[in-house]
Amino acid sequence: MKYRLEWNYKVKSNEKVQCSSEWVLGELAVQMAEELEGTGKITDLYFYDEKGTSWILKEMKKLLTEIEEDPHDITVFFDGGFHKDTNQAGLGAVIFFKQGKKKYRIRANERFDELESNNEAEYAAFYFALNILEDLGVTHLTCEFKGDSQGVLKQLEGEWPCYEETLNRWLDRIEEKLKMLDLLPKYSVIPRKDNKEADKLATQALEGKEIFAKTLIL
Length: 218
Known about the structure:
By secondary structure, the protein is of the alpha+beta class. The protein is 37% helix and 37% strand. The strands form two sheets. The chain has a six-stranded mixed β-sheet. A hairpin with a 5-residue loop joins strand 1 and strand 2. Helix 1 packs antiparallel against helix 2 (57-68) and helix 3 runs parallel beside helix 5. The longest helix has 19 residues, at 118-136. The chain is elongated and about 75 Å long.
């Protein structure tokens, strides 16, 4: 998760000027705060996350220590495939995250029956990825979700309306799960060529090849 610093800077006239930083990662935010406090010229320094929660420096250090051992800095790639003749879907998800000082990747897929369209398969793939995050114990974090289905991501953002009842039910499930996990989602539409790994997993699911693999990234 990224954080923004806000503080008051004392000038020679004893006036205070309110200042703020760009959004930066937690470790850099703490380093900046320590260097700013070392000048002796600042007061009222606070950290803010993307949800608007605030901390002082001591609280922020404790928070980062607690977060370090849990999955964080999460990026999710998802894709869904669909066979119209069988109404079967293949769901694929690739999840990158940090835990401790290490980086990991999870590759997973699942075959899902009785869907109605490829669009529905994309929603099901997104929901499948959320279930993996829940199993990992991911809560109270910002997560980036990347896929090549512009319709799904724009509808989740609320930019595009959704008129299909079936898809609206998936939207409700996804939004309920996001709320339950207290996740702040960020959505990125990417070209299909950048989503090959999730696409391959979805295809393998349709072929009956079940995969769940957690890999340490060196």
